[in-house]
Amino acid sequence: MSQKILVPIDFSDFNQTVIAKALDYAKLTQAEIFLIHVATLDLGVIVSETGFTYLPELEDTALKEEAEQLEILQKEIQGKGFNCQAIIKQGIPADIILEEANSISADLIVIGSLGHNTLYNMLIGSVASEVIKNSKIPLLVIPKAK
């Protein structure tokens, strides 16, 4: 049975570094890569003077674009000879990442951390720090170079 590596993706430039580290590990263990992107719940919401407006067509377009971006990454990884699956879900990123890691029985989560300071994490919270705090699955945290 091959190992499974879950790699959360947010489409920042830093993702390439995180994916490269995940592939290094996958090469050693013949692991399958599972890319996951969690779209936020407020995708179809615009804020104007009149308050919040929900536009489902805006959400559909954004989800479609994100799914297409994820598929491009999936094909790049498959082109390098790795088994790769892509998962896109909507919700609270840390919760969905942990749920999906359990659902696929991941052996490892490779996640990027932007390394914000403690005050930022206290006020805003970071997906990586939430995953780190709550994961029962081993993690490889890739810090973003300063």
Automatic annotation (TrEMBL):
<keyword id="KW-0963">Cytoplasm</keyword>
<dbReference type="InterPro" id="IPR006015">
    <property type="entry name" value="Universal_stress_UspA"/>
</dbReference>
<feature type="domain" description="UspA">
    <location>
        <begin position="1"/>
        <end position="143"/>
    </location>
</feature>
<protein>
    <recommendedName>
        <fullName>Universal stress protein</fullName>
    </recommendedName>
</protein>
<dbReference type="InterPro" id="IPR014729">
    <property type="entry name" value="Rossmann-like_a/b/a_fold"/>
</dbReference>
<dbReference type="InterPro" id="IPR006016">
    <property type="entry name" value="UspA"/>
</dbReference>
<comment type="similarity">
    <text>Belongs to the universal stress protein A family.</text>
</comment>
<dbReference type="Pfam" id="PF00582">
    <property type="entry name" value="Usp"/>
</dbReference>
